[in-house]
Fold these 4 entries.
Entry 1:
Amino acid sequence: MMEQFIGVINYIVFFAITAGTYGILSLGLNVQWGFAGLFNIGIAGFYALGAYTAALISGPPPSAWDGRMVGGFELPFIVGLLAAAAVCGIVAFLIGIPTLRLRAEYLAIATIGIAEIIRLVLKNESWLTNGVWGLQQIPSPLYNPIRSGVTGFLQVHSDWPAWVHSLLSRSYNWFYLLLVIGILFALYLIMQRLVRSPWGRVIKAIREDEDVAAMSGKNTFSFKIQALVLGAMIMGIGGSLYAHYARFISPSSFKPLYGTFLVWVMLVLGGSGNNKGAILGSFVVWGIWAGTDFLTGYLPFTASQAASLRIIFIGILLEVILLWRPQGLLQRERRFPKYLRPRADDK
Amino acid sequence: MGAFSRIPQLIVYGIISGSIISLGGIGVSLTYSILGFSNFAHGDIMALGAYICLGVFALFTGLGLGNTPIGPLSFGFSFALSFVLALALTALAVIVIDRILFKRLRKAGSIILMMASIGLALGLRNILQFFWGPQPHYYIEKIQVASIIPGLGIRIKPDQVFIIILAVALVVLVHCFLQYTKMGKAMRASADNIALARVTGINTDRVILWTWVIGGALAATAGILAGIENKFITPELGWQMLLSVFAAVILGGLGNPYGAILGGMIIGLSEEVSTAFISTGYKPAVAFAIMIIMLLVKPTGLLGRRK
């Protein structure tokens, strides 16, 4: 009984780490789509780019049987995280230049394209990425101190009940959960400040009507680039957190459209243009996604069929939201100056 | 030298793949200009058509309908009939999808439609994967012998000649339809300005219906032809071609069906010829690079004009 309870706790921790990582991606997409109206469907590409950058900066040098020849600088976690953000930002900048002066379609297609090319590079350029074998032994931050601390503690208290031992044996995940939630919360606070700042008002104005924003003397192209780059940097941070938690990444960890698609459904369901909604959506949709994994296990289907069924379900979910609740669970925040509050009748 | 000697052969492959991309591109272009959104499910509609053809063909084979090859081609009457039926069924399927999904979202704007099309793309692909599995399926497993064109040293199979001839015939048909029929004129008017077309008395609902019929049938054709050319189909077929199709449409000028044909040919040729110099795996990157260069130089595309 106690064992099962601990199993559930451990699962919840694992669940929350993943959902929190998706929450970061969803916040990144919210800057782009929710506030600036930029249609990025290459999220999985930025996520993978962030993960690989972090792994190459903070991971070990190539081992004897690795195909890659570079990387593995074993620099601290935070350096890898910042590098991941920087690389994603640079790629987003390069994608933004040819597309952001044009209609939304062009950015959409260009982001599909860049995600596909990132995938091809990860698969084919094995001197850098080790090809399909991926990068291994990516260190988790503070893993050894925490492990040895917990092991030492349990050795001293070996007379404590078995359930305490099994509870504490996974305590590294608790630390990682704190790390993910901490970064998520920090990003949330920064985003909240940012979207209420003059900068945020301009990008929201661009989302509503770019011509009007341009007429007011704003360089809308520059603001759109900034929003695209900022969102991509946040996605890169999400990627680095994934790499350090999974400790092993390969091109197949980043299915081109599924990752992108899940994040979109998360944001749309939670409420685009609302940072709380972005985070709420990531937990709800990840819950649904994990729940359907559990449920399809009871159905008489093969693994591949069950996987398809889950994606069909999420696809239908997206269409249902678009048809019947396009604003998502949480609506956009409407903030007005004190004296300009809308009356109840003119909403 | 070795790389260059392969170029004539690669040009032939480029024309074949360009024909298939063009047929897909016409549908994307028509949907964009008349319905006002980029349909990212178009690739998966191509795959849907290819699988409907597979299903109908299996049904016919099950019923004992013979498939004695027609002339030098690898397939016979029963496959040809499945092909035609698949076009009709795919067109029907996209009309139903339009009624259920896109029609209700038309007022919500182009980006919401685009988002809905992405959901649809994944839905369709996984419906195919659910029923047929992720593994490749073969139309006809027999391997066809290529004939060598004397003098040039180019190898080409009868099926490939069929692909090129059919694509050219369909392009001419679409051209005649758009230029000389009443519905074609109504479609061109709607592409210019759908609101204006409506007030002049054009039945835009019928125009939209025809847009889906033509786009769906041509997408199915492209999917089936890709299946004939590659010898097999997988649920990923559409996704793998999507980037090339969109690159073609943008290169030619988004919203211009003639541009899609020109763009399709250029993309098909560049992708194939590039394999003489760089790894085959980077074909989509070639399409992407051409598209980005076009966006930097002339975003309206080769045949596009400013709206």
Entry 2:
Amino acid sequence: MSEAPLLELKNVAKSYGKGRYKKDVLKDINLTLNEGEVLGIIGESGCGKSVLLNLIACLEPVSGGHLFFKGEEYTGKKPKDVCQWFQVIFQDSEAAFDPKMTIRKSMRENLSLLSKDVSNSDKKIDDMVAIMGLDTSLAERYPRQLSGGQVQRMSIARGLVTEPNMILCDEITSALDVSAQAMILQYLNNLREARGLTMIFVSHDMAVCSTFCDRMAIMKDGEIVEIGTPEQIMDHPQHEYTKLLLEAVLYVK
Amino acid sequence: MENKYLLEINHLSVSYGTHRIIRDVSFALKPGEIVCIAGESGCGKSTLIKAILGIKQLQTNVVEGNIVLDGRDITNLGVEERRQILGTQIGYVPQNTRGSFNNIRTYDVQYKESLRAHNVPFEREKAIQLFNRLNFPDSDTLLEQQPWEMSGGMNQRMAIGLAVLQGPKLMLCDEATSVLDVTSQKEVIEELAKLRDELGWSILFITHNLGVASHIADKLGVMYAGRMVEYGNTHELLQDPIHPYTRALLSAIPGKDRKLPVGLEGRPPLDGAEWEYCNFTPRCAYCTAACKEKTYELKEVEPGHFASCAEGRTAV
């Protein structure tokens, strides 16, 4: 039998509320993700793409279905049990850092949660900050003293410093200017080429996803309506909704 | 004398307190034209709109230059006079229209109230006709609804509807589509273009999205750190960008070819408007020592196409 995929989701569902207030946010999601793969998840606001990431990282319990990591089921585990596998990076990174801690201190905290040995943590942090193309002196600053793009890169560095198996990116470039967004995409692409980083990249921007994802999944109302390589999705869309989304992408003429 | 331009901005410099945000920006808008000002966060594009609105509470302070609306200098109008032109002559659609409506009152009431303040009679039929013309869904029941029931896109449209009913000649849109989903964004843009075609409107559209700009604008201006670095016809400007910053900005946008976009390291200087020489020099790939000797100047490089610098330009 071939090796189990890094991440597998079987019939995952999520609903909020009870009785007549019950709202199904995710319905029957099936996904597999192999090591080294970058999956883009695209959908409009409210389609459940962020909830899906929360479920994968065990930040919220699933209402149904099963989650597998390297073939082993981990449904119902606590966030602290899975944080050595997954690190989530959020859209608003400035809010994800403690405003009263320097960046370095925040990163150290992240490391100390995962291992008792913190002797070489500063070196690890310096290395990772340098890999994200930032000056290591910036780690001494507070989040508000950095620009939006810099904080976002620091936040990726904080996620990667614990050497997770994969990172889950939730709209990480949506609040940034195009030039900062392009920098982040470049650094993520370098990381993927150098270390075979596995990633789920949630975004509402098809153009961004098509530039660097291996596969793209289109979500609508809690369901994945189409999944395929960027070539398949962008050049030969099958589902009506994908076609609609594609038409709405405003490329520079 | 007949006025060729509806809105003229002449050598405008704007500051908040003593902090200068915009320096020496000039452009003009003909009737029926859509002009787009694009640029990254902090380049002063919203400040430009605030200066045109000139509301005292926004605390914009015009240091130099003037703003001419239909032949009349409106730079230093008093509160009462300004009240007469806002709404009825200059319409405004902000980025966050959630904050412009009261969430728990019907649009009907809010439309009436707003129109009465500008001495425009409210006619239900006229409003519904307008909604129909703009292809708003469920146009006959829209007015009875309340903002909290609506999606962001619909709310944005209702704000546009309200601005249109006051019958301005000039519309200022400050990132009016940036908070919307791609599908709603496209629809709103098409509606604005339709308004221009049918009612002969002029629109000043502020955006950070060059894709949006390329679809709607006749003329495009690119701002960087408080200064206009390039200005021209949209098509020409995007086909043959002259300024190094415009080219860097364009290569940072993911394109149809699915190549990884090229980023631009660093960020714009916060005091960029104070610099005498080109304020893009710290990030510019073509910067030489001579750049810091020259003072900034917007030159007409090609007919109707202005740029402050043409270094490293490859002819098309």
Entry 3:
Amino acid sequence: MLDIVLPIAFGLVAVAVAMSFWRLLRGPSALDRILALDTLNINTIALLVLLGIHLSSALFFEAALLIALMGFISTVALCKYLLRGDIIE
Amino acid sequence: MLDYLLSFLILFGAIFTFIGSLGLVRLKDFYTRLHGPTKATTLGVGSILIASAIFFSTRGTGISLHEILITLFLLITAPVSAHLLAKAALHLELNSLAKMPTKKVQQEGLEQANQTEVAQQTTEKIEQLTSSDGSQDQELAQKQ
């Protein structure tokens, strides 16, 4: 059962990555691009966790945790820059 | 049985991640577009991480707690980043399908300012009129 479901899940998340990448390239405003980057981070975490289940190795969780941390910090920094014109005041 | 549960959770999470990005592409407005990825974070990645936690806990090497760490972190940070994005969008006054709240506040402020200006002008006019009336009366009295 898991062998059938995992490729479907990989396909769905890969299409999600492609769609958020389209919004990253297309986005009318800078905030749309920031939102697309945030979504790309989340999709990458999902993809890494799925890969960990597929290969049954626990090595990918540190990478997923690092991506989550850096994604949050970069989103907050970019939003602060657009909001105030400066990151650290 | 465990296999079916894992398959259901993985499929559920993948479908929600897909729907989140679909919302990011299809919706018309930044403020509506903000909804999609938040659902993808909480429901999609959350259920995939729960599936992963169950999978690695039943492998035999004890309970795995990495996933709970990632889930907690994502659940804490997703509302914060969404709030900051919405705040920045309101600050930059992006185009919205709905009526913007800031413009309404500005209009009300303008109306109040106009009202106060009109009141000041009327009081000034009344003062001018009364003073001029008084002077005219005095002038008339002097002429007479």
Entry 4:
Amino acid sequence: MSAYWNTVSQADRTALVVNQAQVQLMWQSVANDPRILCEDDVKVSVDSYPKLFHRVAANGALGATLPSDIHSTIDRSALGAAQWGLTGVPDFVMHHLNRVTVLMEVKNPWLVTPQRIDEVINSIVRLLSY
Amino acid sequence: MVHNRKTLGILTTLKGWCFFCRFNGGILTMTRMYGDFPAYGNITQGAAAEGYYATPNFTIMKALYYLSYLAAITNDTEEQPINGQPGRVHLPFASPDKADAAPRIQQPPVLAPRPDGQQFGGQPGQVGYAYTITGGYETADDFRQFHKDVDYGVLQFEPWAKENYLGPKNWIATVVSNGKKVVLKLWDAWKFDASARDQEVSIYLQLKPLWGKVVPSLYVSTPIHFFHALILQYVDVITSPYIR
């Protein structure tokens, strides 16, 4: 990733896309909200913080300056027409030029912890049961 | 990701973020779970104190920005036989009800070199990706086969091909044993229980005298990986140019 950042132009790095205080306020309010308890809560929060500000910074939403390189867009996915023709229903996708480029799954923070991910990576647990 | 031949993936709880990358040959790499939220009052002690991996030289938003760039320039990754070997890659059934290791993607058997020195050519239909629905599927509690004498054990299924896409839940697949097309109707079992699929089965059973005449025949009701599935007769509808 650092190799990529070395290639990002100075204009892209310094472009004013969103007020930093607004980002920090939103990040804190979401990250520290003790009432984000289920998957649906997490989806709403992903909608309201990372998705929104990613769109502003990477896709020029709300009148922000477009970056000079290309970026996928984050969107919700749901059964039916919003399923992107995928088998299964991911919670979010990234897409570019009508091609899904990233599948995004949202999980309950009580069920998927850093320790459980470590166990999978270390092959202590081979099959997640959530 | 394999089922949709996607190369990149993200798992998030909002507090924590894991990033995934697939490679051909059944290889999946994943990061540890990163978090970058700060301490706040008596609600949280911050990401590191809660066990999340620190992001010392990037933020999650930077990672998303980078990944959205990487994703836009990265092609999909279709599982194909490694080393150019002809044949099908098989994806065995991984039962969610068992705690043993999930089976790995199976490569086609290695063929001995031809005596004349020529290489085996990959014939259409011989190379590709298939669901194996033998074994675990037939012993599943909700496996029901209505069309006897046909082996539905292996299906050639390429859902990413536009010509196979019939709608949000429906795709065309090919039964490997007889080469015939079928319709696969799939419900994501992580998001939906089997009630909708089972209700459709009961409706089809009520209409059994009309199978193959007025409604498609129902061949199999089964789990397929993380799906509740129906395997149905494929009906090639020819539309008259005079009907608009």
